[in-house]
Design brief:
- It is a single chain.
- With 190 residues, this protein is mainly alpha-helical.
- The protein has one domain: Orthogonal Bundle (Hypothetical protein af1432).
- The protein has eleven helices and no strands.
- α6 runs antiparallel to α7.
- Bound molecules: fe (ii) ion.
- The site of fe (ii) ion has 5 residues, from loops.
Length: 190
Amino acid sequence: MLAELLDARERETGLHSKRVACHTLVLARHFSRDLAVLRQIHFGALLHDIGKIAIPDAILLKPGPLTPEEWAVMRTHPETGYRVVSEIPEMGAAAEIILSHQERHDGTGYPHGLAGGAIPLGARLFAIIDTLDAMTSDRPYRKARGYDAAKAEILRLSGTQFDPHAVEAFLAEETTLRQMVDLKCHETSL
Ligand SMILES: [Fe+2]
């Protein structure tokens, strides 16, 4: 319900959160078959941007580029989301993924500038899927690009923005992910 509320506010169409949660699980299966681990990764991906509920409309929905002051406000969303979700019993690992979902492999992300293995696995996997979903979805200011364009971008950013091991999992699961992206699938049944 929380994820759908956020999608309804921020996105033209819903289902972004469900899609990225489902597609992140495709990568996560590569690293773990532990259902408790997978469940936390699913919830972390599903609720990654939930802290944006606290961002004012004038910033969240601004059509043009943000000012440095507005960016500073926008960059509070991982910590806000962490605070909310870490209050829920047994959601600690999901909350850590939410806190770290804007981090980058090379340490240039936020809020803490974590690098490499210091970033929770779920957040490293999610980062690839979020880029895939963003590039293959229509936005008000541009049309969706195809799967191959998104793949090229992910490969280009392997080792800087993205964990190379996570990119390897992405390549290994490519057939499934391509089908899911083409179908705009948000079910976990594939
Ligand atoms: Fe975010």
